[in-house]
Amino acid sequence: MLLRNKVAVITGSSRGIGAATAVKLAEHGSNIVINYNNDIDGAKETAEKIRKLGQKTLIVQADVSDPDQAKKLIKKSVSEFNKIDILINNAGITKDGLLLRMKEKDFNAVIDINLKGTFNCTKNVIRYMMKQNGGKIVNLSSVVGLMGNPGQANYAASKAGIIGFSKSIAKEVSKRGININVVAPGYIQTDMTEELAQKVKDKMLENIPLNRFGQPEDVANVILFLVSPLANYVNGQVINIDGGMLM
Ligand code: NAP
Question: Homologous superfamily of 7-238 in CATH?
Answer without folding.
Answer: NAD(P)-binding Rossmann-like Domain (3.40.50.720)
